[in-house]
Amino acid sequence: MANMKYSRQRAAIKDYLEHTLDHPTADTVYLQVRKEFPNISLGTVYRNLNLLADMGEAIKISTPDGGDRFDGRVDPHYHVVCRSCGKVYDLSMDEQHSQSITEFANQLFEGTIDSHTTLFYGICKECEDQLEQSQENTSN
Question: Of 46, 106, 118, which is closest to residue 79 (Cα–Cα)?
Fold first, then answer.
């Protein structure tokens, strides 16, 4: 890809992604970056987020609720989506486990798989605790 012209807005978007663990939607990024750039448009944020993902400087996570999430952490890792609150969490696995998933898939596929992405689904600890607390309150 040819060298891109520097953009202060794109740099602010990338900086926000690199300093949050929340895996924000484009709307959330827009609301945050707008504090520094009041005239930025939502379309500009969407274009820059997708550009950063295309350049490998961010990860775009497509979730089942239809809203894409973005991650500034670009090293290989997995994500867990809480079925209760919808938050997206990082899940780090060592390289051995990640490689074994790809190797297993290659055994089942006629062709060559060289990488993969995976979303895990479950209930986060915070939602489990809230559910447990509400069950305790109901039984009392």
Answer: 118
b or e along 27-65 (b: 16 or more beta carbons within 10 Å of the residue's beta carbon)?
Answer: ebbbebbeeeeeebeeebbeebbebbbeeeebbebebee
DSSP-derived 3-state class of residue 98: helix
What ranges make up the beta strands (E) of the chain?
Answer: 59-62, 68-71, 78-82, 88-91, 119-122
114-138 pLDDT tens trace: 888 889 999 999 999 999 998 888 8
Instruction: Identify whether the C-beta of residue 32 lies closer than 8 Å to the C-beta of residue 19.
Output: no
The angle formed by the CA atoms of residues 122, 128 and 130, to the nearest 5 degrees, is 140
The two three-digit tokens of residue 133, written as one number? 């607390």
Can you give the pTM of this predicted structure?
0.82
- Helix orientation angle between 8-18 and 26-33, rounded to the nearest 10 degrees: 120
Q: What would the two tokens of residue 111 be?
A: 């062709």
